[in-house]
Amino acid sequence: MKIRAIAYHAPLPEKFIELREYVDNLIRFSFDELRKILSRETGLEVFTRRVVFPYYEDFKSIYGLDLERFVALIYEELGERKDIDFISIPFAEYDKNYMDVFPELLLNYPKLFLSLKYDPLNILEDIELLKNISVRGGWINATHFAFSFGNQLVTPYFPATLSDSKGITFSLLYPNFLLNHSKEEKDLEKSITYIAKHLLSKSIGVIEEFKETGKLIGIDYSLSPWMNDSVANLLEKLNGLTFSLPGTLSKIFEINNVLLRISMRYRGVGYNEIMLPLAEDNHLKYLAKSGEIFFSDFLSFISVCVAGLDMIPIPSWTDIRILEGVFNDLYSLAQHKGRTIGLRLILVDAEPGEEVDLGIFGKTPVLDPIE
Fold first, then answer.
1. pTM of the model
2. Which of 61, 70, 231, 308 could form a disulfide with 341 if both were Cys (CB 3.0 to 4.6 A apart)?
3. Which tens digit of pLDDT belongs to each residue from 18-66?
4. Does domain 1-277 have CATH number 3.60.15.10?
């Protein structure tokens, strides 16, 4: 088990003159020191360290900075630091300039993540933006961009995240830990409850040593995978059936209820749901490659509260009517469940069934969006 991410949620300075001091304060905040102390106190390795900003529109309204200048200013100071792995900037409103600017930013700033709140009135523009990012920014850089159906949440999960207060959030990497400690659902709840109590008791004291970071905002207890640390594998064990067979939806729903209960008791923040990003789960990749799981399955999972349609490559030639259908489905599902849903589709020059190299995510099978 690891702490998947420590995310520092940066506040918004009130005056332009404070922006430089704001960045300097971030620089003085040592993620390396926090990581060392937290690892020592909890016994858990920290996987990644992240910085989350408020909505860009808020910065623009106060300072009048255009996006390129704002990103350059932030990245010049923070992007070269070895103790910061990723930086996220959320956007609440579509702007036609983003069509050209987003692909260039993602291409030029490899630690940068961007997210945009979806507006059904801009569906055609959003689809074109997705295409531009995948084609001009590149497939790998497209993994750094997401649409948010609903407001971005305060969470350490990227890209669809937000800062609305000063403080720290955590996420966990723990499917294999639960696989080894949970034979059934009641064991799962006991295990996660133990983790929550342990991490809270240890981390609050650590955060207090870093007073300039603010408070511990909370923990996102979402079950998310990383390669062989597979959520799909855990679900198979708990369900006793191959993932995606009948019974999968009910098991996802049951586990999400467990995560919801724990998040309400132990300072949960963000999604607190099962996450099934195709490119990040080796067992999901295997099932997709062997023809046991399809694009339509990933859509159906959302109906029982999965955080979104995530890290899925599809052919770049996909008919625009199909893409419109995907956006409309996700918007409807977000309205129905009353919670935020994320979308990371990667449009690639490959056929369904082929594999594409997505950098640190490795080779990932391309899905057919009509299957």
1. 0.94
2. 308
3. 777 777 878 888 999 999 999 999 999 999 999 999 999 888 877 777 8
4. no
Maximum Cα–Cα distance across the chain: 60
User: How far is residue 349's CA from residue 11's CA, in Å, rounded to a whole number?
Assistant: 40
Angle formed at CA 145 by CA 140 and CA 148, multiple of 5 degrees: 150
Q: Are 45 and 226 spatial neighbours (Cβ–Cβ below 8 Å)?
A: no
> CA triplet 127, 131, 137: central angle to 5 degrees?
140
- Location of structure tokens 């400690």: 181
Per domain, the residue ranges of the chain are: 1-277
CB atoms within 10 A of CB 212: 9
Residue whose C-alpha is closest to residue 232's, from 282, 172, 167: 282
> Residue 28, exposed/middle/buried by CB under 10 A (0-12, 13-18, 19+)?
exposed
Cα separation, 371 vs 359, whole angstroms: 26
pLDDT at 77: 85
